[in-house]
Protein: Choline-binding protein
Organism: bioreactor metagenome
Amino acid sequence: MAKRIILVLILVAMVAFGGCKKEQKVVVVASKPVTEGYILAEMLTLLIEAKSDIQVKQTLGIGGGTSNIHPALIKGEIDLYPEYTGTGWLFVLKRASQQDAQKLYEQVKQAYQQEYGLVWSGLYGFNNTYAVAVSEGVAQRYALKTVSDLAKVSPALTFAANPDFLEREDGYPNLTKTYGLSFKAVKEIDIGLRYEAIKSEGVDVIMVFSTDGRLNVEPVVVLEDDRSAFAAYHAATVVRSQTLENYPELSGVLELLSARISNQEMIGLNYQVEIEKQDPKEVARAFLVKEGLL
């Protein structure tokens, strides 16, 4: 009888101990299938796991980017990911172009909270938007520093870009309208061949992204968009409100990247992964250590 009582007490204790076991904290971090997205997602993962007891499950390189990540975020299949203000405003919310970068951020942040229950963190600091670049020779020959300077000599030059940029309203049509550009010729090229194209004698001007890793090594000059033709694409973390309610400590962790990454720093990080073929996680870790965040 005594043995039976002891056995029952042991079983009760085991059940009680199991019931008191702390529930595991987990968030899902996603990214778009681009170098920058991988690096930023690794930074978020490293910070969350170092600064909290939350574990991270990664779902990186999601095909279709925002078009697939945003619905998954709303459904709760994903908790957070790096996004761009211009993408949120123009693609997700489908609002008219807003040229004031700070107003764009405030408006997209408010709309996401009201319509989707999603929160934008503070901006990382860099702006990965469209930009216009010319060869170093052309920049020197015509003393070009801004796109307004380019407009004065554009009839003598050839422009090249991928079909998507040439067709979309916020791309080439808006650029030419804003600055009155009128090129001698316009060529369609694959987006991956733009730097090779400008090295040829047949192309003088190309479209680039302002945080392209190759800008560190290619013989081009990026012109200032002095009339703000291109929408701002400042990056930040988008996270579910419910996730922040579940794990309030996460909010402070995500803010650690606010105002930490300049355009030049993002170019350098992309260069390390794209050109030097370094591991995105190790590049992210080295940056966080340099910034004193790890």
Summary: The domain at 26-127+232-290 is CATH 3.40.190.10 (D-Maltodextrin-Binding Protein; domain 2). Confidence is low (pLDDT under 50) at residues 15-20. The beta strands are 26-30, 55-59, 80-84, 118-120, 130-135, 158-161, 185-188, 205-209, 220-223, 235-240.
